[in-house]
Amino acid sequence: MAISLWTYKRPFQYDGDDYEVKYSCSLTTYTSQLFCNGTLVDECTHQFQGGFKVVVHKLQPSSQSNNKTKAATVSVGYFSWLSVGIEVREGSDLIYESHPGKDINFATKKFENLEDSDNSLESIEKTKLQSEQWQKNKPSILADIGIGAAFFIVAKVTGDLTIAAFTGVFLGLALVITQRFVKVDLLGGFAVFGTIMLLISAIFSIVFQSEYLVQLKGTFMGLISASVMIVDGIFNKGGYFGTRFERYVNTPIEHRYFVIGLALIGLCMAGMNYSVATQLSEAQWLTYDTFIETPIYLVMFFILVWRAGKKSAEDAK
After folding, report:
1. What would the pLDDT profile of 258-295 be if each residue is shown by its tens digit?
2. Model-wide pTM > 0.85
3. For the chain, domain boundaries
4. Which helix (H) or strand (E) holds 102?
């Protein structure tokens, strides 16, 4: 039996009986159960792979004045991405809604639209183009990941960020030399820029031994990278950084808009790091640096990607 991660409960009354719908979700399935006066009378389970279908349960038919019975049902479905609602009907007559005015077919319609979009010729061509771009960009992305992984492993093993930084510098230089002898693009990502930043970081760590200055290293590095991006955005229309980030997000973005936006994010993060380092204690700064800074950056980054992608689509029209 699948472990339930979340359960929605929707009670209602019908024909003098107390009913309740329990709609639960596991990692792969969703189950809707109908209870009448505490007794399970119907249960339906579906796979998420098939989309979010509206589940329909049959109620006990109600007796009419002419001794005829009228079929009654309760439908269960998502009216948003976060919650489900129910609708109780007698025949075609709606007699109860748990969330009046909400459309419990919301998720079903969304998935149908996605399927229609995925099957369109334009979508197929876009998917093919993205696949080709990924194959082309994969070597440079893997090179970036490799240098980053080496930095992390060396830092973990030695506990010395300076040694880790110089390891990254050495690997970056080796990558530059290797590029001269191979045809695949190894430097199309951030290997060169990352190597330079690691070198600056390593030199900073050697020259400045003060713990306070170590706290401010993020501010200095942020200012340096933001300055470089501003130059690229203004004078090169984001041709260097925009092109490389586009490989990672694998979707068209407006280069200048994105790079200048990223530079502004860098300046914001540098300013925040400076404020925390100068106004709060070292322990509080460490908490900010470890748990708070990255989530804030990622939120701003993905908003920027969305806006840059939207602007690229508008410019293409």
Report:
1. 999 999 999 999 999 899 989 988 778 878 876 788 78
2. no
3. 6-106, 135-207, 211-317
4. none
